[in-house]
TrEMBL record:
Residues 224-251 form a coiled coil. The keyword Coiled coil applies. This is LMBD2 protein. It comes from the Eukaryota. One of its GO terms (cellular component) is membrane. GO terms for biological process: adrenergic receptor signaling pathway. The gene is Lmbrd2. It comes from Crypturellus undulatus. It is a multi-pass membrane protein. Residues 658-669 have a biased composition (Acidic residues). Keywords: Coiled coil, Membrane, Transmembrane, Transmembrane helix. Belongs to the LIMR family. Residues 576-669 are annotated as: Disordered. Residues 618-634 have a biased composition (Polar residues).
Amino acid sequence: MSGAALGLEIVFVFFLALFLLHRYGDFKKQHRLVIIATLLAWYLCFLIVFILPLDVSTTIYNRCKLAVNSSPPENNGSYVTLAPSKPKCFKPWSYIPNGIMPIFWRVVYWTSQFLTWILLPFMQSYARSGGFSITGKIKTALIENAIYYGTYLLIFGAFLIYVAVNPNFNLQWNQLQTIGIAAANTWGLFLLVLLLGYGLVEIPRSHWNGAKRGYLLMKTYFKAAKLMTEKADAEENLEDIMEEVRKVNESIKYNHPLRKCIDTILKKCPTEYQERMGRNMDDYEDFDERQNSYPSEKSLVKLHKQVIYSVQRHRRTQVQWQILLEQAFYLEDVAKNETSASRQFVHTFQSQESENKFFQYFYTPTVEWYWECLLRPWFYRVLAVVLATFSVIVVWSECTFFSTKPVLSLFAVFIQLAERTYNYIYIEMACFLTIFFLSICVYSTVFRIRVFNYYYLASHHQTDAYSLLFSGMLFCRLTPPLCLNFLGLTHMDATISHKNTQPTAYTSIMGSMRVLSFIADGFYIYYPMLVVILCIATYFSLGTRCLNLLGFQQFMGDSEMTSDLIDEGKELIRREKRKRQRQEEGENRRREWKERYGNREDSTRSRAVHTDQKESSFSETNTNRPLSKYTRSNGRTERDRIELLQDAEPLDFNADSVNDDPLESESGR
């Protein structure tokens, strides 16, 4: 089993990162380099989280071997004392041979740092550029990142000058490497505490509110009103951009040098607009004979960038609107079925996607009713209590992990108790649950935050390339300080525990932070305590209230604006529901017509063909019989059509149907 656990986790984490990227990205439409770079960034960060518990168990085993093979040192810790009833230093099932982990961590860490500080920022500018050639996009990316890279050099130069001026330090390569790592981890820890303070409160609260059906339905109505506004704004923006494209397309003819740029822009437009703005091949006048003002290549680059952004935003809002409608319809169905006496879940609309037959066999309407109406609310409440307990433990440990005598960090207490008995499975499970919960709190916040329309991770393949690359940058910057913070909480970091013990392979790659004592003894220890203030601010929704005061509508139960948006969203959902009901009724009526009258016409045609064959065989003996039969069949078909016209329902001219959608009434006229 030596190294088998490492190999299994490497494969598992790869498919996990691939699954998440497939959910948010679009493999068919987005550039392959964007997909590969984002997948690599996500994969490396998830890999660090999953492999670190194996590093901890292997380090504890190596410490045990050193304690047994060498003479017992002074009483530096309980790791030397072995229980007499236990075997001495048995090898864990997930043991990784010496020499593998340092190389593994070195490759993973420096690859992720290269991605987050050099490659991904460059690819962001490249993906967002509106250039028409690779050279033009690279030039734009280099210009945009000049200030970005210059800031890095300035910060690194400041640290370098500090070390050079200090007489206690000698400039060596290892120390320069440690300075760079400290600078990157300091920036990451600053952002990590902000995201962690939000996630520790919001994740348990969201699961607790998930048990409240009325709360979820009201919030869905609120989202519908906001999304409709964004959807209308995206449609209006797309119309304006397409109008500019139409004017440019009409001004630049087939033989203009910039015509290739126009063709590239037209390919990025939606299909219906491409059909309207066909290429002007009917005008063969030379472009230089007409005294018209033509746009420059720089203005076309800007227009190309606007087209890419507006089309992506329009498509995203359309998909999100359909998804939100399905959620609203489903929550309304749950509210109706809660009082059902038959205890069978009834859907207002059938799912448009084909469900698995195996899933349908077990997940029957009765099972669905018990799960949605009875079990699911209680499951969410229990899960919220468990997550809230974890959050309290994390906050307590973040405030007390620097105390070694006595040990106040609960995570350190759990690991030290398991270390005394060398229960490696318990050690790995405790480490994995701890770092997994910390990662969920941080990463989920990255998936939830939205910086206007520049950064937004939208599911169902609606995330643009810029947001995917930006998320990869954040993950690579947050994961190393997250792991160092976890090692500090468990006292596996010698900088925190103040013990002369063998460090983990991950800590050895980070180097000794004693080079910068004000960071090792000050910032890394006391800054995480701010998570208490951030948790209190998140609990009382101070950030939400501030955004609401600034004009950004947020969901707040005691706000008049929230109530107005809920009513507006409820009306929008009601209109869409009536529209879909009319569509389904029309489809059912057409289906019944085909089943009722289509079969009769088919049988009439078959009888007519059979009569013709019979007439050709027995034309001499029976001449008039086929004609009469043919006439009767035609008469029956004619009667069926008259009956169909009589069965047709009159048109409904109620006020609701007239006022639902004025655009439909105009198109009808």
